[in-house]
Design a protein that fits this description.
Number of helices of chain A: 36
Distance between the termini of chain A: 60 Å
Shape of chain B: globular
Oligomer: heterodimer
Order of helices and strands of chain B: HHEHEEHEHHEEHHHHEHEEEEEEEEHEE
Helix content of chain B: 25-40%
Largest sheet of chain A: 8 strands, antiparallel
Largest sheet of chain B: 9 strands, mixed
Distance between the termini of chain B: 50 Å
Shape of chain A: globular
Largest interface: A-B, 130 and 108 residues
Strand content of chain A: 5-15%
Structural class of chain B: alpha/beta
């Protein structure tokens, strides 16, 4: 009965429908992968697929082993009988008219179309031959088709032509030279070509001209920056933590590493290995460790109530999702809770992948720090050699000092036997100002000192509660130079008031101050904007004892706090956390002890509540590291030790005394300390210029493991498992370690079917707008099929065999005839292939957000082509950050940079995850919160407002106008200047006429009311040349804006 | 071309998309005109989802009760105990240590209180009284809200999965604690399309809190982002300072007339480009520039509250005259929905009272109380309330025990995911009702629990969307706002 029905259906379809499909299935083998799997995946796998938990009726349809044999409950017939669709239960159920019986069940709201049922029947008739999912079969180099002769320039074209021939289509002709060069330049560098380059290229019709343009562009730094930006989308790079306070995070050296990797054309396997596991490479270099910042790009939290296990699970999932999207093209996320619905990827696979990333020393809570450990100090490139030399020489000095200590033990004992007091403080040649505050009036303290002295570490000390005492010049704090202020203090009771102050009494109170509040030590710092304020009260200062106090003001990037007070070598109070912006505190008031320069309402002007003394105030022109602060603090201990009977001295006290002797009294040691201090100062300077970057570090003494979490719930820990790669992929060789390094090697192993395909697909997408597989991050069963499967395999094999040469593959793609096609679309082709999957024309689509901004900068001559460095803050409307930020976030206030930083490539703009730069955001830049391997590309009115009105674009058009006015005379030559820069071509006369009309209107507009029009000329911070006619500048600014807003300008 | 050409090896999703497109082309003519029209409707060139979606009758559409919605998001999570969930009888248990009782609850505690030595019960210290025909108990902190009790449906049995702000906000505003999902408003925009030509369909307003003591939680663009949905569905923030919409004002020195002429030239140039290249995206571009031009006229008119009569300010409160206040945001929300904006979300921060709750909660309530009342009454007077849904609430509840020091007059409360209160009004909502019930401690739901995903299912239902069918294929899955765990429409609150 069924058989008759089937035949009838087929005959009917063949005669009546004339469908190419049914004609085809009558005489061609049906490919499971291409035809059947999509139907089953869409309609059946949800309940009859790999996921055991949601499987119904013990039935699996995703492999022959399950569908063509009796089911595991043993009772029922197989769902499919190969060769006999009529006897196959699956067909019967699909065709059933009974709502109780029919599959898929009506409540799923899914049903198979007649064509699909016919296909399924025919496939079963042909033997129900299953195939491994296409992307899991390692690619083999396919034979290059013999197609596209006379057109094809390389094998890519042969594959494309082959498909076009089958479709009955012909490739388009070559794109006009100028447009082609513009497309190429944007695709390879993210920037427009220079007019001279266009002119030269258009004039030179030789085939070598294009090749040499490609080579020249590929070798440029701009190219590295452009490629890096796309990679940073994929690995979700940003400059803030992302969750809750969303504080600044210092990881930009990793971003620069990526840029450099593209500059060097680092082979992709090495690129993978160093990022994933550079720290595990034998003898890992600084750069290789910086590369592991890849593992730190994820969003992290420090929210007060956050539960550590919960976030551990979230981070693990995020890391595996990113690995899945970027290297494997597998959507792994769903397997966190249940076996994958479509792909043979189990929950166990998921958790064994997470294990690779769990054995590290990164705390789950980021501490809101910019330098959440593990982190690394990275000297600036130009300091690398000096850094190594200083480290080496410092080591030598320290060894010498240690040696001296060893041989001079007796000298020390002799001194100790006779020592009555510490005669002098330790020498430090980096001290720039010192006030002994000993007996007798010193010039700064004038006559304020009362006779009421007290013996301090170095003899009689000065009383400071009797009124403010001038102690030195204003201590300024700037980003480039750290400052430290140290002194010894003693209080006799709970004292209130300013202890050490350098703060203006008027205005915003710019400056800093260390104060006591009920005996507790506190610090306060304010910059001139009044926005950056720090006020922090720490622990009590113990009365009746001498303490060592150190204030460090240092905005060096490696510092955790920019203002910090240490008591006896231990951090006691400090500013908020470091942000990426250097604080600048420039008080005009001098440094004062025991009071402030002026009165502040409500606060005591001087110390009250008890007596206080101070001694040995010194100012260093560098921010001292904690180790050195501890050294100095040891003096207070030494002082106490001297007053203790020799027999009762503790080990710590003996050490303090020894440190004092060799640091301050022993002439031979002092001879080494001199040069050592010079080195320390140099080290501090290098630190100021360098940066900290987050890196990855393996936990020692333990092996990676994870627990399977039931339904993804962190609190429901299941089986404990080790690190392992997914079972559906070629196994990890036994000799590879089960850690990140092993994983990285496995990712780039020759038999790995996905990495090369996924990477080449992404590169293809970069040039053609859509990948050969358009679901860029999903090569699984539910993802799209490749439009050109053989081409993708050919590229993957070529990539791998070329030694993972990324640049070579980019060159291959952009030199293909396919890429060089004209983008002109005929109405017929548009109807036939609206999204250009068949590649019968060249790519044409809107530029990315960054490209649009960078184009404006480049065309106007504003672009500052500096490579790398800390993130910059160009113009941004007020309030974008404040609207979403927490009160004490280090990224609450946006302070626009000055100078060159306004005009850097968009790649360097500081990326705050919870509030990305609005112009980027509206133009579809991702938020960088999760991996993004494919950007959305919308076309909205809000985008028009950006390119018309965003001050950066306005400033750029004005600069393009002034540039044009200087470079050429007369309307047409000037217009050529503008359009050559933005469109790479000259306008034809009818187009020029339209622009001329706008130009005249604008000129008229200015002349009618110059005062109303003039503000246009003053947008932005760049200078306006005074030599030019303002009306002309105005009119040409409007013209430049018109051209910049043409679809042709916004599109590649 | 055959629909299923042998070499057309795309996924089923693409087949379906292709089919939809083809049906659309057939219906509205053929050839380039149709393609260009599709583009004009907002379809991006590389957008595999069909923009036609919003125009065609989609399978997820059902009969709507409301055409538009306003969601008032109280970020930081207001305490249900002081506002809507009246628990008389707890006064006598002041300071009772709940430590042992809590152990029996099996509830995880946040890192902020898990280390507390004791968990003293902190009774609400504000007076409640009954209001409206329904006799609903409302706190003295919300005198205006109390006056509209009969318009409101108060859900006392809301539940969430998250115990901290970030994940809880993500869950309630995007349906998932994970990053990268689409927000409620973007789903509405995607599922329903736009009601107007010159405003976005989803607008976000940031209302300032007035108290300097307010404990402020961070929010981020992901709460109103489009996630995996096409970017045009993401919420557009209207700003409370500067241009209401970013870069809305023309550059200084450019007159309206000159802009018009410049755009006319732009149109002409783009048309020539289109004639040469044939890409319909060029036409779309021109259209978007035209729409931007119209927005430049319509939005300032919209944002100009100065022409509102005094009666409006009597209704919303005088602070509605000050830009950026909650009251002015509420008024703006009304003006937006009046002009066809589909979904307006007002974010008001500062509701995280871990300490000094009595002082700070009172200040927060004062910010919003009258304006919420004003908004609902205003909508009603204009006949808009019957097809406008209004929702107001936070992301979770707060604990009955005190966080920090408990005194007769002062206390704080920690995060509590197991129950919280929220109100709805307007289109399709049964006013004058209280739904759900908690135990005597306002700790567990004892009747009619409403999970966040049930709230989502209900909001979608009211707006005419079937939450099980409203989906978007992404990463191999049919993504839904309500996710994979079954969600139900809360029938008990429907009119």
């Amino acid at each position: 009965m069924h058989a008759i029905k089937l035949t009838g259906r087929l005959v009917l379809a063949l005669c009546g429908g004339g469908s190419a499909l049914l004609a085809a299935i009558a005489d061609q083998p049906i490919s499971y992968n291409e035809r059947i799997q999509p139907v089953l995946a869409e309609n059946c796998f949800h309940c009859h697929g790999p996921d055991a938990a949601s499987r119904k009726g013990h039935l699996r349809l995703d492999a022959a082993a399950f569908s063509t044999r009796p089911r595991d409950d043993g009772e029922r017939d197989p769902a499919m009988v190969p060769g006999k669709p009529a006897e196959s239960m699956v067909i019967e159920r699909i065709k059933s008219g009974d709502p109780e019986e029919v599959m898929p069940p009506p409540d799923t709201k899914k049903h198979l179309k007649p064509d699909e049922i016919a296909l399924l029947e025919e496939w079963i008739r042909q033997g129900a031959k299953y195939e491994t999912h296409w992307s899991l079969i390692p690619p083999v180099r396919p034979k290059t088709p013999d197609s596209g002769r006379g057109w094809a320039r390389n094998p890519i074209d042969a594959f494309v032509a082959d498909r076009l021939e089958k479709e009955g289509l012909r490739p388009a002709g070559e794109e006009h030279a100028a447009r082609l060069l513009r497309r190429l330049t944007f695709d390879l560098t993210g920037l427009p070509p220079e007019p001279a380059e266009v002119e030269a290229f258009v004039r030179d019709p030789s085939p070598a001209a294009y090749q040499s343009a490609v080579d020249h562009l590929l070798a440029s730094d701009s190219c590295a920056e452009h490629f890096a930006r796309l990679w940073l989308d994929a690995v979700r790079y940003a400059d803030t933590h992302g969750i809750h306070k969303d504080n600044y995070r210092s990881i930009w050296p990793y971003r620069d590493w990526v840029v450099n990797a593209y500059r060097r054309n680092l082979p992709f396997d090495q690129f993978t290995i160093e990022q994933m596991a550079g720290d595990l490479l034998p003898g890992a270099t600084l750069d290789q460790r910086v590369a592991t910042g890849y593992n730190r790009c994820l969003s992290t939290t420090n929210e007060g109530g956050a539960i550590v296990e919960e976030y551990e699970a979230i981070y693990a999932k995020d890391r595996v999702d990113t690995l899945g999207a970027v290297w494997l093209g597998l959507t792994t996320g769903c397997a966190a809770c249940h076996d994958h619905k479509f792909d043979p990827f189990t929950t166990r696979d998921f958790y064994s992948l997470t294990a690779f990333f769990r054995n590290n020393t990164m705390p789950v809570l980021d501490g809101n720090r910019h330098d959440t450990p593990p982190s690394l100090f990275v000297p600036a490139l130009e300091d690398r050699a000096a850094w190594e030399r200083v480290a080496k020489h410092l080591g030598m000095c320290n060894r010498e000092l240690a040696d001296r200590k060893a041989v001079a033990a007796k000298t020390f004992e002799a001194w100790l036997a006779g020592a009555q007091q510490l005669t002098a403080p330790p020498t430090d040649y980096s001290v720039v100002h010192r006030l002994a505050l000993g007996a007798g009036p010193s010039p700064e303290s004038r006559s304020q000192i009362s006779g009421d002295t007290e013996v301090g570490p170095y003899g009689p000390a000065v009383r400071i509660d009797a009124g403010p005492l001038r102690a030195g010049p204003a201590v300024v704090m700037r980003g480039e130079v750290g400052v430290s202020v140290a002194l010894f203090v003693k209080i006799e009771a709970k004292v209130d008031g300013p202890l050490l102050s350098c703060r203006d009494a008027v205005g915003t109170g710019t400056g800093w101050e260390v104060f006591l509040k009920e005996g507790k030590i506190g610090v306060q710092a304010c910059d001139a904007t009044g926005r950056v304020k720090a006020l922090n009260v720490g622990n009590e200062l113990k009365a009746g004892e001498w303490h060592h106090l150190m204030v460090v003001l240092d905005a060096a990037p490696w510092r955790f706090r920019t203002v910090e007070v240490f008591v006896d070598g231990v951090s006691a109070a400090g500013s908020g956390l470091a942000s990426d912006e250097p604080l600048e505190i420039t008080p005009s008031a001098p440094l004062v002890l025991g009071g402030t320069s002026g009165t502040q309402e409500g606060n005591p002007h001087t110390l009250v509540g008890g007596r206080a003394w101070a001694q040995d105030l010194r100012i260093y022109r560098r921010g001292l590291p904690e180790s050195e602060i501890k050294e100095l603090a040891g003096e207070a201990e030494a002082f106490r030790a001297l007053k203790t009977a020799a027999s009762e001295r503790t080990e710590a006290q003996r050490k303090a005394l020894s440190d004092h002797f060799f640091g301050a009294e022993d002439a031979e040691s002092l001879a080494v300390i001199g040069p050592r201090d010079v080195l320390r100062r140099e080290e501090a300077e290098i630190r100021t210029r360098g940066a900290v970057t987050l890196v990855m570090e393996e936990k020692k003494g333990s092996q990676p493991f994870a627990h399977v979490l039931t339904r993804g719930d962190y609190s429901m820990k299941g089986e404990k498992i080790g690190a392992e790669t997914p079972s559906c992929l070629p196994p990890m060789p036994a000799d590879l370690q089960r850690n990140r390094l092993g994983l990285a090697h496995w990712l780039t192993a020759p038999d790995q079917p996905l990495t090369a395909r996924v990477t080449m697909n992404r590169l293809w997408q970069q040039f053609f707008g859509t990948g050969i597989v358009d679901s860029t991050g999903d090569f699984g069963v539910a993802g799209s099929r490749p439009s050109h499967p053989q081409l993708l395999d050919w590229l993957a094999v070529e990539f791998h065999e070329s030694g993972w040469d990324y640049r070579r593959m980019a060159r291959l793609m952009v030199t293909s005839a396919t890429y060089r096609q004209s983008a002109v679309i005929s109405p017929i082709l548009l109807e036939r292939d609206p999204s250009n999957r068949l590649l019968a024309r060249g790519p044409r689509y809107r530029l990315d957000a960054e490209q649009l901004r960078d184009q404006a900068l480049a065309a106007s001559g504003l672009l500052v082509a500096k490579l790398g460095g800390r993130p910059v803050r160009p113009y941004q409307p007020d309030g974008i950050w404040e609207d979403v930020a927490m009160k004490d976030s280090t990224t609450r206030f946006y302070r626009t940079d000055g100078g060159d930083s306004l005009y850097r490539r968009s790649l360097y703009t500081l990326w705050k995850r919870t509030a990305p730069a609005p112009a980027m955001d509206l133009l579809n830049a991702p938020s960088r919160e999760v991996a993004c391997v494919r950007r959305d590309r919308t076309n909205t009115p809000l985008q028009a407002l950006i390119t018309l009105n965003d001050p950066l674009f306005v400033e750029a058009t004005r600069n393009l106008a002034t540039r044009t006015l200087t470079a050429a005379r007369g309307f047409q030559p000037r217009l050529d200047q503008v359009t050559l820069r933005l469109l790479g071509r000259r306008l034809d006369p009818s187009e020029s006429d339209l622009v001329r009309r706008t130009w005249k209107s604008a000129l008229g507009s200015y002349q009618r009311d110059p005062a109303a029009a003039a503000p246009l000329l003053h947008v932005g911070r760049s200078a306006l040349p005074t030599s030019l006619d303002s009306g002309e500048v105005y009119a040409w600014t409007v013209v430049a804006s018109q051209v910049m807003n043409l679809d042709e300008s916004l599109t590649k | 071309m055959s629909i299923l050409h042998p070499d057309w090896t795309e996924s089923v999703a693409s087949y379906n998309a292709a089919l939809t497109r083809r049906q659309f082309f057939r219906r509205s003519g053929s050839g380039l005109g149709a393609a260009a029209l599709a583009a004009l409707l907002g379809k991006a060139a590389h957008d595999s989802e069909s923009a036609v979606g919003a125009v065609l009758e989609e399978p997820w559409r059902i009969a709507p009760k409301a055409k538009r919605a306003i969601y008032i998001s109280l970020i930081g999570a207001p305490s249900q105990l002081e506002l809507f969930d009246y628990k008389p009888g707890l006064e006598s248990r002041f300071r009772e240590d709940l430590k042992d009782w809590l152990k029996g609850q099996g509830e995880r505690l946040t890192g902020m209180t898990s280390g507390q030595a004791e968990f003293p019960l902190a009774p609400n210290r504000f007076r409640f009284s009954q209001h409206g025909q329904s006799g609903t108990w409302i706190s003295e902190l919300l005198p205006y809200t109390a006056r509209m009790t009969d318009d409101l449906c108060i859900i006392r049995s809301m539940q969430t999965d998250a115990i901290n702000h970030e994940p809880a906000n993500q869950l309630i505003y995007t349906g998932s604690m994970q990053n990268g999902k689409a927000s409620l408003g973007s789903w509405l925009s995607y599922g329903l399309g736009s009601l107007n030509d010159d405003l976005p369909s989803f607008v976000v307003l940031h209302a300032r809190h007035s108290s300097p003591f307010a404990s402020v939680q961070a929010i981020s663009a992901r709460l109103w982002g489009a996630g995996f949905l096409p970017g045009r569905h993401s919420g557009v923030s209207f700003r409370s300072s500067g241009d209401p919409v970013l870069y809305l004002n023309d550059a200084p020195g450019i007159s309206r007339e000159l802009r018009r002429e410049m755009l006319a030239g732009l149109e002409g140039l783009n048309r020539r480009s289109f004639e040469t290249v044939g890409d319909p995206e060029i036409q779309t571009r021109t259209q978007q520039y035209e729409m931007a031009f119209r927005m430049q006229a319509s939005i300032p008119e919209l944002a100009d509250l100065s022409r509102e009569p005094d009666s409006t300010y009597q209704l919303y409160g005088e602070e509605a005259r000050v830009r950026g206040t909650f009251a002015s945001s509420a008024l703006m929300a009304r003006r937006l929905v009046e002009r066809g904006v589909r979904f307006v979300q007002i974010f008001h921060r500062g509701w995280d009272q871990h300490g000094t709750l009595p002082r700070d909660l009172a200040a927060q309530c004062k910010d919003i109380d009258q304006a919420c009342y004003g908004l609902v009454q205003d909508l009603k007077q204009r006949g808009l309330l019957e097809d406008t849904l209004v929702v107001c609430g936070g992301e979770f509840g707060r604990t009955v025990y005190c966080q920090g020091k408990l005194t007769e007059t002062d206390y704080g409360r920690d995060h509590h995911p197991r129950c919280f209160s929220l109100w709805l009004a307007g289109g399709g909502i049964r006013g004058g009702t209280v739904f759900g019930e908690t135990d005597e401690m306002s700790y567990n739901v004892v009747r009619d629990p409403v999970h966040v995903r049930d709230l989502h299912a209900t909001i979608l239902h009211l707006m005419g969307l079937d939450h099980e069918r409203l989906n978007f294929r992404y990463q191999g899955l049919d993504q839904r706002l309500t996710g994979v765990v079954p969600a139900k429409v809360v029938k008990g609150i429907l009119a």
